[in-house]
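One record is set out below.
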Amino acid sequence: MQSFEYYTSLANSMDFRTKCWIDGQFVSAKSGETFENINPSTGKKLCDVARGNSNDIDAAVNAARTAYEDGRWSEKTPSERKEVILNLARLIRENVSEMALLDTLDMGKPISETVNVDAPGSAFFFQWHAEAADKIYDEIAPTGGRDIAMIRRVPLGVIGAVVPWNFPLDMATWKLAPALVTGNSVVLKPAEQSPLSALRLAELAKEAGLPDGVFNVVPGFGEDAGQALGRHMDVDCLVFTGSTAVGKLFQKYAGESNMKQVWLETGGKSPNIIFPDADLEKAADMAAFGIFFNQGEVCSANSRLLVHSSIKDEMVGKLRDRAEMIKQGDPLDPATTMGAMVDVNHAKKVERFLNVGKLEAKLIIGGDRFSINGSDAFIQPTIFSDVPEDATIARDEIFGPVLAIQTFDTENEAIEMANKSVYGLAASVWTSDLARAMDLSDKLHVGTVSVNTVDALSAMTPFGGMKQSGFGRDLSVHSFEKYTALKTIWVKY
């Protein structure tokens, strides 16, 4: 990849897209209001972004509805839609440094991750869903006689998508790719902390051949733009990734408006269970990755480590060693392996958890907020041991680089501890005993169980949770189910 100097120079010369994208063009918010977009790694303003509200959401939804009803996209063949989305994937790859840098500047994550993982991952997910577009078949029911009953998957219409700030480009892609491929129009509200890559993506989508009005972006805040989208009477489906508390609000908004479908992927407090017969070096490597990747700002982060009591001290030592190897610094430096929290407010929230944790458990390493480049939005990689089951840091989603270590003695105890959470997004199991791995996988109440790895993810498998982690599923061909309806057409002849 390129050098620190290259990314610094590129960042200083970037032309940010800062207006709403509605009906194929950039427009100011109808109110004329803007909000400051801050680089969390420096604390300095990047730009002023249009602050959309209900009026802008109305305009975007109207544009999306018009585009859907006149068939400029919805009536194209799957193969025709496929080619446009493949063009978009190509354009992301051609602009990979720019797309990566936008997310690094917006949320403070290392450029090495956005260049090597996030931006190329977005292109890949668009490509994968596009390739599936003309490979999903409708059905004919076995009616017999002079009857033909066709069961077709049809687009829902206008999709409202609200995405979080931790993976701005990727999370938008996870919603957009299947929604667009199946013929819907979309109104996207990116998180106010990280709107820049979504606005540039909209511009690239038009260049790729996506008709005007099919994809719209309204930056703004949850209490106005987000709520307006959730309550809108002409939105057919709302998809959301974010906190459990906000997810519940979207369910309320749907019930109080037009009963639109709501698909939620929300919080997590994922357990990582390690047995003595596991490869402990690999388990330690992946346990560290599972909590410290992306500054711990991952909904499925393995933030609870459940380790067998016989290997507890050994694992604590290995994890301390790995935490000490993490390099925190300027996110534009390719050598940096952990960046800033998304903003100072979130850093302060994580710091409050650190202070509580120091009273509840034994601090092994880290535990403080600190400053780099004049920004105090940085949190040290932190490990707590001897964490009680009812401790705040073992129960609440912290969304930061904070690991809570607990011990168990039996399989049943490990299962009970792992399931003792309101969340059910993901879990990991480390063991060389296949029967044990399969048994635990059946008994863990989560959406994904990773065996001898952490947070396993692929375009080919669905991602989502159970309990208060929500019930939406992104990725895989199953994701198309959220954006389509089954229509029966019965013909007598």
